[in-house]
Amino acid sequence: MSFEKSNVVVQPVDREKVKKIWKVAILLGVVTGIEFLLAFTMPRGNLLIGIFIGLTIVKAFYIVAEFMHLKHETKVLIWSILIPLIFVVWLIIALIVEGGSILQVR
Amino acid sequence: MSTTAAVINKPQRSIWAGGQSPLKASYGKLMMWFFLVSDAFTFSALLVSYGMIRFSHAAYTGSAEAFNFSQEWWPIPEKVFEAVPFLHGVPAPLVFVGIMTFILILSSVTMVLAVEAGHRMDRRAVEKWMIWTIIGGALFLGCQAWEWSHFIHGTEAGGQWIDGTTIFGANLVQNQYGPPLFASLFFFITGFHGTHVLSGVILNMMVFYNTAVGTYERRGHYEMVEKVGLYWHFVDLVWVFVFTFFYLV
Predict the structure, then answer these.
(1) pLDDT tens digits, residue range A32-87?
(2) How large is the average pLDDT for residues B130-140?
(3) Are the beta carbons of B116 and A12 separated by less than 8 Å?
């Protein structure tokens, strides 16, 4: 029985890169912690909802930009992913207004 | 004379003219990205529908302390999701779902580390981080199973149905916590997300297997880890939105 010696060269760990990954992870954890804290310390209202949405977008940015590496792709790729999402913005506005109107006629 | 002219007038080829990849990403990665865009539309449609249906129901206006479940208004989510395993009867609003969020974020981190190890052709490290990612995904699914089971069986006190009878838990017809649509949307949105997590775990297992048997090493690159990684981060991304719009707001 012969053991095939692997001739793959393993590169050493890039400490900077790994540190960056954990930094983003801690940031995501802290933002989630803040959301959690605000849910119990702030009165419910439009301000709180606004803060929640803002923090969610912050988290989404870091996941997509760093974890999914989109920030480091070419500009064309970034825009071809982001521009179609305009439809979602339209859908949000359209359906939230619609929901309010349904409540009115109920 | 003509030779010099040919050199000067060499036509400038556009990056779109072929022969190179203008997006500097492989076919597989690009297709994963565009699949994720379409999946983002599906999830946005579900979450925006939640918003519309919520806005078409009356909101609870009293104080949070005096809140009780009623068919009249949309429930406050932190009053619905306040149970934690092994702490029966202890109200701990959003604690369990917070733990689930942390589990998913952590398994996303281990996935990035697996991708990073793949770039370095480090098979052992890829194996290690893929195992952690799979464990994270499985833990999340277990938590979700518990969450569903609790939601379906309901609280000890139960809630009042329209005809005055006391009902326990929620299904697609009745819901002790509020309007039946609240339960339907809970099952639909978290169920659809859970299905994504499940298929993600299966894909992760497949990647782990292929890494362990050396498929990617022979292939000379670990791009498959990257592609499945993109999908896994997307699942995490969706949960960030579900967490905010279903549990926090």
Answers:
(1) 999 989 988 888 888 999 999 999 999 999 999 999 999 999 999 999 999 999 99
(2) 97
(3) no
CA-based diameter of chain A, in Å? 80
Of the pLDDT bands very low, low, confident and very high (cuts 50, 70, 90), residue B7 is low
Q: Does residue A10 fall inside a structural domain? A: no
Count the helices and strands in chain A (H runs, E runs).
Answer: 4, 0
Q: Which CATH architecture has domain B25-58+66-248?
A: Up-down Bundle (1.20)
Sequence ranges of the domains in chain B: 25-58+66-248
Cβ(B177)–Cβ(B75) below 8 Å: yes
Nearest Cβ partner of A52 from B40, B93, B244?
B244
Nearest alpha-carbon partner for B147 in B214, B102, B80: B80
Look at B22 and A74 and tell me if their CB atoms are within 8 Å: yes
ipTM above 0.95, yes or no: no
Name, in order, each residue with C-beta under 8 angstroms of B58's C-beta and a sequence gap of 6 or more. A103, B72, B73, B74
